[in-house]
Structures are given as structure tokens and as C-alpha cells.
Write a structure and sequence with these properties.
Number of helices: 12
Number of strands: 7
Order of helices and strands: EHEHHHEEHHEHEHEHHHH
Structural class: alpha/beta
Mean pLDDT: 90
Helix content: 40-55%
Length: 259
């Protein structure tokens, strides 16, 4: 049965989609069966993973009940993907029924047996999509930049996580905080890392030992419909994301048979 991991931060521009794409690539490289679900109306993850949205069902159709999630799965260049499009931006107003927070979880239940990991890319906002992602997930990964404004995003996120754990998903776990564009030579980096450590304690989690450096290849990979793992496999960033993926799933070794 697949483990569901949401990559999340209510602040935009912190590397959520990059992290999703690279994580999917690294997990595939390690021999895992991976499904990526794009929950952002901008559809950046779909584009980054080489998926064409035209003439395909999307996660919007799944959430609206127009199709089952199996019908929306596209075999992308990196892994299987449930793509997104701009229609998703109106879902908040369209989904008003009882139990709307559980739609994604119910859809994923039927396909978990087909994958080892299901990775969710969440929108940079608190919405019905974010709540659905948290309700469906086993773990959350919170990427952030080594900037003060990124800390504010995590502080706001904390209240949402606690609310979801209380009302919708008591088993939800914050797996850790991932520092992106990490440069230990900057004084601010160390200061933000220390403050992030305090917030991590409040979330009953920690900062991942793996850190992700800035790099040109990270920005170039999406234009080629590839993850950094295949686009520039020997780059520093690719090696760092591989280390992150191994750290992330280290607790799963030897447990798949008991899921």
C-alpha cells in the first residue's frame, strides 16, 4: 500500500513543485512505483513532469466527480501523474457538499495498492484542496527558503495542521522541514535555520539533514519535462535530492510488507 506524502507550504516560491518533481524522480530511480498528484491550479508539476493536459481528465474532474482517479492518470516522462489545470482555481466555490474534505482520500484509497508512494503537490494557499491533501496524507514535508518570510509561512501552516489533525486526520505526521537554496556561507541562513528548528519542535518534527543548494539546472529541468534527477544526474542538486529521498523513506525500509 502506498504512503501518501504532501509537499506543502502556504507561502509560494519556496520550491514545492521542484521538490515534488525531484522527489518523484529520485524515488523512481530507487525502483519505487510513484504517482504524482498536481493539486495546484497553475499546473506547474504537470508541466515539469512532461505531461500534456489537453484532452485528458484532470484532478479537477476527479474532485468534481466527473471521473474516477484511475481515468485521470497519465503516464508521464518521469512517473504516473494526475495533472491539473486552471479550472481547479474555482473548486473552492464549487465544492460545498458535506464531506468535501474527504474526496481525495476516498479516491486514493482505491489505487494505493498500485504504488509505493503517492506525492501531492499542494497550492500555496489554505483552501479545500489543501485540506483534502492533508486529510489524504500520511506525512507532510515542508520546504522553505532560508529567508525570514518563509518562516512566517510555516507559522501560519502550523494552525492548519493542528486543525486537520483534530478534525479530519488524527494520524497526520509532519515528516520534516526541507531547506531549499541553502548556502551555509550566509549569516542569515544560519539564523533562519535556528528559528526553523524552534518551529519544527512546535510541530513535533525536525529539519532534514539533507539540504538543497541553489543551481541553474534546477530551473532548467522543468522546461525539458524532466526532474533534476534525469536532466542533470551528476549535478550537486541531483545528489542532494537523492540524499533527501533516502532520508525521507529511511523509516519505511522493511515495513512495506506490513502496510
Amino acid at each position: 500500500m502506498a504512503k501518501v506524502i504532501a509537499i506543502t507550504n502556504q507561502k509560494g516560491g519556496v520550491g514545492k513543485t521542484t521538490t515534488c518533481s525531484a522527489l518523484c524522480g529520485a524515488l523512481i530511480e530507487m525502483g519505487n512505483r510513484v504517482l504524482a498528484v498536481d493539486l495546484d491550479p497553475q499546473g506547474n508539476l504537470s508541466f515539469s513532469l512532461g505531461v500534456e493536459v489537453e484532452d485528458n481528465f484532470t484532478i479537477y474532474d476527479v474532485m468534481k466527480g466527473n471521473c474516477e482517479i484511475e481515468e485521470a492518470i497519465v503516464h508521464g516522462e518521469v512517473c504516473d501523474v494526475v495533472p491539473s489545470n486552471i479550472l481547479l482555481s474555482g473548486l473552492e466555490l464549487e465544492m460545498t457538499g458535506v464531506g468535501r474534505e474527504y474526496v481525495l482520500r476516498e479516491q486514493l484509497t482505491g489505487i494505493k495498492k498500485n504504488y509505493d508512494y503517492i506525492i501531492l503537490d499542494t497550492p500555496p494557499a489554505l483552501s479545500v484542496l489543501t485540506i483534502n491533501a492533508y486529510t489524504a496524507s500520511d506525512e507532510l514535508v515542508i520546504p522553505m527558503l532560508c529567508e525570514i518570510l518563509s518562516l512566517q509561512g510555516i507559522a501560519q501552516l502550523r494552525q492548519t495542521i493542528f486543525a486537520v489533525k483534530r478534525y479530519y486526520n488524527k494520524g497526520l505526521c509532519v515528516r520534516g522541514i526541507l531547506l531549499n537554496k541553502y548556502n551555509p556561507r550566509f549569516t542569515l541562513t544560519k539564523e533562519v535555520e535556528d528559528l526553523a528548528g524552534v518551529i519544527a519542535e512546535q510541530l513535533d518534527t525536525s529539519i532534514f539533514s539533507s539540504k538543497i543548494s541553489a543551481g541553474v539546472s534546477i530551473a532548467e529541468a522543468p522546461a525539458h519535462g524532466e526532474s533534476i534527477i534525469t536532466y542533470s544526474p551528476n549535478s550537486k542538486a541531483a545528489k542532494e535530492f537523492r540524499a533527501f529521498a533516502k532520508e525521507l523513506i529511511s523509516a519505511d525500509k522493511g515495513t512495506k510488507g506490513s502496510k
